[in-house]
Amino acid sequence: MTRIDLGxxxxxxxxxxxxxxxxxxxxxxxxxxxxxxxxxxxxxGADSVxxxxxxxxxxxxxxxxxADWTGTGAxxxxxGTRLGxxxxxxxxxxxxxxxxxxxxxxxxxxxxxxxHLALEGYLALHxxxxxxxxxxxxxxxxxxxxxxxxxxxxAGWAVxxxxxxxxxxxxxxxxxxxxxxxxxxxxxxxxxPHADDYRLLHPTLVEDxxxxxxxQYAYYGAPVPEFTARIRDxxxxxxxxxxxxxAALEQERAWAxxxxxxxxRDLRETSYSFERAYRxxxxxxxxxxxxxxxxxxxxxxxxxxxxxxxxxAYLKTFRLSENQIRKGYLLNRxxxxxxxxxxxxxxxxxxxxxxxxxxxxxxxxxLLDAHAVARRxxxxxxx
Length: 383
Fold this sequence. Notes:
alpha+beta, nine-stranded antiparallel sheet, four-stranded antiparallel sheet, 18 strands, 26% strand, globular, ARG and Rhodanese-Phosphatase-superfamily-associated domain-containing protein
């Protein structure tokens, strides 16, 4: 599996609020045998998840999801998240959660942390650092790798216009997902197996994390146009309600084709690397990373639950910024060359000094041995 399969989901006409465009995804039939519920974590503060090997992931985590594949859907979804009491606390507590994904009670329920499973995968990219003791890297880098590594993100309510757009959005019958655009750039994709699940989980989108690029687009971008349908009555083509209904359906199909082939093309056609996190009966939970290709194409990290045919029953994505893509690209090139800066420069077709500049520009300059790098740069200038 290398691509995201959105088979069974149909695109419906978008709704626009300012610079936010919300595109609903509808299923004719829900995914059989899988339901998704929310587990609410009350209070302010961060959550820390132990990952093993004395490594921890810390972030603001307002809720978890519980996947239930009993096929009965008997358990009701938790509804409503309280983000605090009368005011902000004087100290910020840190809760400790045991795992990113953990079985709950019976053998057919799994609690996992939506989106954070994917974010941890990105932060863990080549987290061990240099694999060979080269002089260019500091002793701290050789001993601790990239630790600590951090990335900034914005909660949904901090993205201008998003909370109001989600509040006034009208759900479609059978809606099981949403593609969220800001300034017509795809910010996030969210898919669930059942329309009842989506109805209760729709408000959680304002609690999700969004990248710096999305926040900038929302803050500086102008309102986006609505793509209104135009039905021409040339040569008396519309003679009754049946003709009008057929013409309206044709406009819906035309919009879906245009959207899927243009606005959502990068999400659908990018080849991802998938890592299975858990097998859940006939379903599998994966997290995925993009190829970190240069060239301006949008790239997402995320997690997906697929059925036996590889179709997405659940999906949640996070749009990476250009800086994050460059960092992932650079880390992959360094790892391919065993973290040897000279060989990395040759592989990239550039100079040692340029690779050092890129490492520093990616926020990894603290991993370099300043004296060894300065000596090598001086030798290159003198030669």
